[in-house]
Amino acid sequence: MTSFSPRLGRGFFEAVQDRVRTRATEAGLDAVLTDDPEDVAYLTGFFHHPGERPVAVWLDTDGRCFLLLPELEREHAQIQHAVAELVSYPEYPGVTPPFSVLAGAVGLGRRRAGHTTSMSYSRLHAAGTALSTVELVPTDLVTVARYVKHPVEIALHQEAARITDLMLSSGAWLVAEAVATGGQFPSEAELAAHVTKVGTSTMYAEHDDVIVVSPLAGGLVYAGENSVYPHGLPSGYRLRPGDTFQLSLGCAVGGRFVEGERTFVLGEPSVDQRRYHDTVRRAQEVGGQAIKPGAECRSANAVCLEVIREAGLGRFLRHRQGHGIGLGMHEPPWLEDGDATLLEPGMIVSNEPGIYVPGHAGYRISDSMLVTEGGSRPLTSFPRSLDDCVIPV
């Protein structure tokens, strides 16, 4: 069996750096500064656990890229073949502040640099103090550059989708196995631990260089009334016959995420359970058809959720259709009424309408959708219909 490599080559990072440089020049900027861990990974290939020690990228429009990091991370960056000039400082807070070390490397000429909008006040203040001759202005330039995925990124997402499907299958199998053997039904926490192990063990068995991000694999597992909370956490509740339960799962390959969510029924569905599930399934199908090049995110959201409203279940809506997905499990653009972003080929967004019935359960079906030239297609493929998501008792 050929091992899958999730580590991208130097050519990818040179291409994305050039993409960002072009956008920066068009925006009247001389450089871009970001300390967002996802931006750092996107621009240089360096993945790290963020903490109090600053790690940041300075990307000049003149062709240079600097990676500021603590000395204790230097070898880590070298092992990952980070595509940047490494600028390290001894320790934090340090006798010489970290951003002063960066200023010494890039110089203090009169320049205009865009900083990521997610920089904290303290980080931005420290950068501004050290880079005293640089005009720092907010920009979402790197975030927007990340919207459209390169083909090599899409391959990583596709592999993450394959593993997510395996996790969904393994979760359903664990419950079905309890039925078949007459054993105790798993708890939400046991189900969550099981699917997480399947996801991570598959990567370590089949990939030659696992890039660890948080979360690497796993998700939310909830049953019955616990599933009424869209982002509820797995508990010790043990599944029972008649329960509606959700497996809201995903993983990251090469730092690129995919999510896949299915709603199951343990035993013969009631009339209400079938109505709720079928309505969400139809909304997801219509919503997927609305995800296509040239469509506004807000229009896809409106079309998707209108199916639920027309079915008389609008009072059970609690969230939008979906969101962008990439180096972040949740990232822009947002499939919501307030986002007019136009969808483009190469974008990946979630399609996850849901309803949440107080005192009963929640119903949500999600796929990560790749926008194509002619429309969109789901990366995850686990069956979605209720008949395929019933576990007979």
Automatic annotation (TrEMBL):
SUPFAM superfamilies noted in UniProt: Creatinase/aminopeptidase (SSF55920), Creatinase/prolidase N-terminal domain (SSF53092)
The keyword Disulfide bond appears for this protein: no
Domain of life: Bacteria
Entry-linked InterPro entries: Creatin/AminoP/Spt16_N, Creatinase/aminopeptidase-like, Creatinase_N, Pept_M24, Peptidase_M24B
Chain ranges of the Peptidase M24 domain: 157-373
Keywords, ordered alphabetically: Aminopeptidase, Hydrolase, Protease
Protease listed as a keyword: yes
GO terms, molecular function: aminopeptidase activity
Span of domain Creatinase N-terminal: 18-141
Record's protein name: Xaa-Pro aminopeptidase
